[in-house]
Amino acid sequence: MQDWRSYLSDEDLATIERGQWAQPIGYGVRPALIVIDVQNYMAGEKDGNDPDKYPYAAPAVAWPAMRKIETLLSAARGAGAPVVYTRFAIDREAGDAGLFDAKIGAPDSENVYLEGTHGSEIVADIAPEPGDLVITKKKPSSFFGTPLLPYLIDRQVDTLIITGGSTCNCVRATVFDAFSLNFRAIVPSDAVFDRMPISQAINLFDMNRCSADVVETSEVVDYLTGLNS
Predict the structure, then answer these.
(1) Catalytic amino acids?
(2) Structural domains in the chain?
């Protein structure tokens, strides 16, 4: 797990202790696995990635996280848990980017998040399988403007295992919405990734402090495996 303690002062640690922050939420009995935006524009090339070709990619952290996501996918499917993939893709001709283009100006490239490009596709190594739900979203949260909530309600899901990237943006937004909707949010720290180490560490800290349980993939696999025992 990314160590966030090095970023915290003694006063910060005392505040956490006084407020009894970071209490464990624990797991429910009906989980779903969410794989957020593990697309080519985020992952880049496995070997010898060219940052000019993939300006938004973080291959050094994305590919190790994907190996953990593969393990979680196998365990979730083995447990009969729903699997949901999200992909972020905008269509400039349709003008659906909203303020995103004002804040983050992606070039017109085959390797960014524009609809219909290579960059917008889910990485083939962890491609969805028949029966998985794939949602295209236009905002950070997997819930905003998507059918995710009614899908989870229909399946009586109470626990969301949230993976993918980036930790500071779409993962965090999804976790906070999940918490607000009274889902138990579980974040395997080694199955989410961010472009900057400080962003990874502090966002994991914040989620663990007030909205999710941040754990290791191995613990989640044990939980999923135990559902069938």
Answers:
(1) 170
(2) 30-226 (3.40.50.850)
